[in-house]
């Protein structure tokens, strides 16, 4: 049995670093996507809006990518996922009939922000990153025997993931700033919106780590290839 080549050892070492790096990337991508879908992540949100209806007074509505949370007002925290839900279905299920029209209008406003303003590019970025992780794992396990198309796909998807995550973090940050500026000029002394700084910070961390991951994937997927070319030239 031959000893493993230096390139294989380096590739395995780089692969271990990539697998370690994958843990915080996964978590820092998952938490923003789960924002405001349950009470456990109610403090992670895009935007917090003042909510004052007959059903819940002096409450904060925290808006996530795929969830809404009502916090305060002397009532238990209410969090729910909004994927596929309408304002009416949410109001019918969780709010009393008295003043329900006001609740529907408020919920619809939050849903419009979710679906028309805060587009979750991070979802696509996370999926691209996950596939690239699977591909680079295959490349490392194959010990240099992975085909060129597999290597190219891993590099491409890791790069796409990094671009999407950076774009998502930047776009989300700008959209939140725009809402805050609008609020300052239209709400008078009482502010209606509050920025979700925790979510923005998590997204930027995930984006930066995704860029580092893409660089590592480029190194790992190219190292074995260079060794094969070198060996081929020696044999020739």
From TrEMBL:
Keywords: Membrane, Transmembrane, Transmembrane helix. GO terms for cellular component: plasma membrane. The keyword Transmembrane applies. InterPro entries: SUR7/Rim9-like_fungi. The chain crosses the membrane at residues 12-33, 118-141, 153-172, 192-217. This is Putative Ca2+ regulator and membrane fusion protein 2. It comes from Elsinoe australis. The lineage of its organism: Eukaryota, Fungi, Dikarya, Ascomycota, Pezizomycotina.
